[in-house]
Amino acid sequence: MTDQAVTAREGFVELDWDGRRQRVEFARVGVDDPAAPLLVFLHEGLGSVSMWRDFPQQMAQALGWRGLVYSRPAYGRSTPKRAEDRWRPDFMHRQAQEVLPQVLAALGHAPSSSGERLWLFGHSDGGSIALLHAAAFPDQVAGLVVCAPHLFVEALTVASIEEAREAYASTDLRAKLAKYHDDPDSAFRGWNDIWLDPDFLAWNIEAEVASVRCPVLAVQGQDDQYGTMAQIDRIAQGLPAGQVELLKLDACGHSPHRDQPKALIDRVVDFVHRRAGPDSRSK
Predict the structure, then answer these.
(1) Do residues 60 and 257 make contact, with C-beta atoms less than 8 angstroms apart?
(2) What are the structural domain ranges in the chain?
(3) Which CATH class is domain 3-272?
(4) Which strands make up the sheet holding 118-123, listed edge to edge?
(5) Residues in domain AB hydrolase-1 (predicted)?
(6) pLDDT of 127-151, one tens digit each?
(7) Is the dihedral of CA 135, 136, 142, 146 positive or negative?
(8) For residue 261, which of 54, 109, 70 has the smallest C-alpha distance?
């Protein structure tokens, strides 16, 4: 790991993970100020650095913070999944407890060396990963924003993912995903296969979420085709009163940052300033 790679605005870092050397695509957004807080963006189950478009830049700029975006292994321009590999039901735990800490360390944000307490912004699977990371490392996370996170498997989610499987086989969905992933089969199959695996139906992270100690803003669209309000309601029910704030958006599907970006950014800025204090632009 070189100093140039650590300080670059975009590029790749390399990790030893899952039995091999893998590269991870990253981009830095927001202010270029090492004293500003860091917000790490964790993408959805079919996401990548490029699929966020300019939302991380808008969000970080509105806060006056630094932002870090990366594509998990198998996504974007990161190392693709091998065709024979099959993810296990603990795949989000491994991303939260193994991959994210390695990415942070490779980019100079390891809490043991930097002293930083991170904020995480996670969408869908990325929201679940954010919650799992905060539960595993409660002293290292200052706050969470989770949009359309999954805490357990719902019939609605499975039905929508089955529809996505049919669309991938019979429409131009693969070609559309190829705009954001070097290997769209890697991204799609990894996500789709595990969510439709019978062994995944019992997946539930409510016990882990009960260990989260930081403030949480949980966001869900009223028209989300991949999850119901029960997902974020369970976060509020499982944590002490006052720790969690809920934002339920009308005219909004599974991606609040695309469907309602202004409402989301405005609420996140308000949430952060209240929870992190009036000097949150620099701390």
Answers:
(1) no
(2) 3-272
(3) alpha beta
(4) 10-17, 20-30, 66-70, 38-42, 118-123, 141-147, 216-221, 244-249
(5) 39-266
(6) 999 999 999 999 999 999 999 999 9
(7) negative
(8) 54
